[in-house]
Structure formats: C-alpha cells, structure tokens
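Morning. Coffee machine broken again, so started the prediction first thing and wrote up yesterday's gels while waiting. Chain of 129 residues, entered below exactly as on the submission form.
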Amino acid sequence: MLTGETQIRVRYAETDRMGLLHHANYLVYFEQARTELLRTSGVSSKDLEDQGFYLVIAKVEIKYKSPAHYDDLLTIRTTVVRTTPVRLEHKYEVFREAGVLVCEGSTTLACVDAAGKLQAMPEWLTAVK
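Came back before lunch.
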C-alpha cells in the first residue's frame, strides 16, 4: 500500500473560540495530504485534471479522538487502501506531538470526466497500492 506523511501546523484562522481546530478543516488537511501523496508518484492533481481525469469525493468519514489546538504541528499519515478502475480509497491518521492520535478518517474518490460522468482512471493510478 502506498503511504505518505504530511505535516501541517494549525493556524489561528482554522480554530474556533476555544483555540481548537474546527472540525471542517480536517477535510482540507486530508485533501492536502492526499495531494502530496499523489505528487510522490510524480504527478500532480493539476496534471490529472489537464488530462481530463477529475477525482471527486464520493464518501468521507472522520472519527475524532482528541482535539488539535492552535499551533499544534500535526502529522497526517495517508494510505491508499483500495483501488478499482473508477474509485480510489484512502485512510488517514492524524497525530499531534508525542504521537497522540487526533482523528482517523477515510475517503472514497470517484474518477469523472469534465461533464461529471464516471470514467476509468489512468491504468497507472489503479495500480498504486
């Protein structure tokens, strides 16, 4: 399975009044980590889109375990857990300093064309495991 890690520091603008990372920002972090993982394969999301392949979220799940705070340095571990000709599934684990698990998540991406119609992904992308 293809796995990578990305570090992100929680910015003040991403927190609520209690100084906690707002729950919606985890999805943004997942996207950044997923984009960086793709980049390790030598291709960017822009490259895929320029070729007419668009990866859209079909399903997302997050299980919050412990809060992240302003200025925490988070490590997002992203793993490709399953591929099909038209779908790509990722697992995410978010840790803060000292290895504290902040949340776990998963996404299923579907490959569509510019009109939003389901299409097969490039063969090399479905072979990523």
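The helical segments are 25-39, 45-50, 123-126. Going to sketch it on the whiteboard this afternoon.
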